[in-house]
Design brief:
The protein is mainly alpha-helical and 430 residues long. The protein has two domains: 13-105, Orthogonal Bundle (Fumarase C, Chain B, domain 1), CATH 1.10.275.10; 120-195 and 226-358, Fumarase C, Chain A, domain 2. The protein has helices at 13-20, 23-27, 31-47, 53-72, 84-96, 109-145, 165-190, 209-216, 225-261, 288-301, 303-311, 325-348, 367-376, 381-393, 416-427; strands at residues 150-155, 158-164, 192-193, 220-221, 268-269, 351-352. It has a two-stranded antiparallel sheet.
Length: 430
């Protein structure tokens, strides 16, 4: 197998298989970014005189050809190469001869991998941002459409106070804004150029790191070359926390939907084709999609712990441990996008039951409304509370099922526009 670090001596086959692991499986996702990083590196080498203008032009042209092959699906990571970085360099050398061997000047595989990952993570984060934004828009739409449909609110799993579908949908919309705030922080951490840090201690070549920062579209540099390498793991952990935050929101939404779909509640329903049946009970309409969203969300909520444990007690500098981040994080990126898509799809088809509170089992939802009504008439709060409590215990309480909530963020004042303003401000941070 061809390696960038080979000095003419073959590695033990068992060691080779173990150390390469599943890297080749995941590296094809980095092919585009490896080539883009190499193009910027070559341009920088040309501008500093480390490559001649002719060499730079030849290499850039062939790298552009490789990029087209990646985009058309014709690029292959062969069995002879251990990773995408080796494949690109060896392909260039095969096609261009010795000039292809010059591409690695002033660069280590350590900063090369970091560049690939940070460019990849930036794009993946933007995909997540887009998917979360679409779900936010749908939730706000549903919140406004159903703002007048009352719903029981619960604390401790017990009937508590009146809520509404407007509040319920709107709550998840605003919570997603908080999740996007965390995601934007992860994006900023990823949006720093590590190229030029080499193996973690810089290079004696006169590299122009500001130029590659501009060419690659990074907002800023990882200035300190040791800090650049220390970002391996730190960046992944930030992304893991942001994914976990979104997953936490989707988990609670899925749990609510499973509960609200059950026969004991019956607050919402979905078309038959979006639910599943039982092998022996013909009446069943199971919330399998929401249950799997909930389960997948729980898997993702463990992601930060996986990343944190992998980086525990590792001193600064590069360590091969970091290779395994791909096996943890790449599938997680796919998983969060899938459950965001499915949550959006299910909510597009939700049916909301009206007149839920006509059922007398929800009469006690309005005890607080009655207490507040008496307080507004001049009765001290504690006396009003006590008298309503006595009526409840004696079975004499009669619910006046009218709700008059006007303060910001309440049933009658959802502040949908204010929540949207918060959303817009967070989106601007990306």
């Amino acid at each position: 197998m061809s390696t960038l670090w080979s000095k003419g001596q073959e590695a033990n086959k068992l060691v080779e298989k173990f150390t390469v692991g599943r890297d080749r499986e995941f590296d094809m996702r980095l092919a585009r970014y490896d080539i883009i990083g190499s193009i910027s590196h070559v341009k920088m080498l040309g501008s500093t005189g480390l490559l001649s203008n002719q060499e730079s032009e030849i290499l850039c042209k062939e790298l552009e050809n490789l990029l087209k092959e990646v985009e058309s699906g014709d690029f292959v990571l062969t069995e002879e190469c251990e990773d995408i970085h080796s494949q690109v360099e060896f392909t260039l050398t095969k096609r261009l001869g010795d000039v292809g061997k010059k591409i690695h000047s002033g660069r280590s595989r350590n900063d090369q991998v970091l560049v690939d990952l940070k460019l990849f993570f930036k794009d993946e984060i933007l995909k997540i941002k887009s998917s979360v934004s679409e779900l936010f828009e749908l939730l706000q739409k549903l919140s406004e459409e159903h703002k007048d449909v009352l719903l029981p609110g619960y604390t401790h799993g017990q009937v508590a106070m009146p809520s509404s579908f407007g509040l319920w949908f709107g709550a998840y919309a605003e919570t997603l804004v908080d999740d996007l705030q965390i995601l934007s922080s992860a994006y900023k951490i990823a949006d720093q150029n590590p190229l030029g840090s080499a193996a973690g201690y810089g290079s004696s070549f006169p590299l122009d790191r500001e130029l590659t920062t501009e060419l690659l579209g990074f907002e800023t540099l990882h200035y300190n070359v040791v800090a650049a390498q220390m970002s391996r793991g730190k960046c992944e952990r930030a992304i893991a926390f942001s994914i976990s935050a979104i997953a936490s929101t989707l988990n609670k939404l899925a749990s609510d939907c499973c509960m609200y779909m059950s026969g004991n509640y019956g607050f919402i329903s979905f078309p038959d084709e979006l639910t599943t049946g039982s092998s022996i009970m013909p009446h069943k309409k199971n919330p399998d999609v929401w249950e799997l969203i909930r389960a997948n969300s729980n898997i993702l909520q463990g992601l930060p712990n996986e990343i944190a444990l992998m980086t525990t007690n590792i001193p600064h500098g590069y360590h091969r441990d970091y290779q395994l981040f791909k096996e943890i994080l790449f599938p997680a990126l796919d998983r969060i996008l899938t459950i965001l898509e499915m949550s959006h799809f299910m909510l597009e088809n939700i049916n909301v039951k009206r007149d839920i509170l006509d059922n007398p089992i929800y009469d006690y939802l309005f005890t607080v409304e009655e207490v507040n009504k008496r307080v507004l008439e001049g009765v001290p709060f504690r006396e009003a509370y006590k008298s309503v409590g006595i009526e409840v215990s004696q079975g004499k309480f009669k619910a006046d099922k009218k709700v008059s909530h006007t303060h910001a963020g309440s049933i009658g004042n959802l502040c949908t526009d204010k929540i949207r303003d918060k959303f817009i401000q967070v989106i601007k941070q990306f």
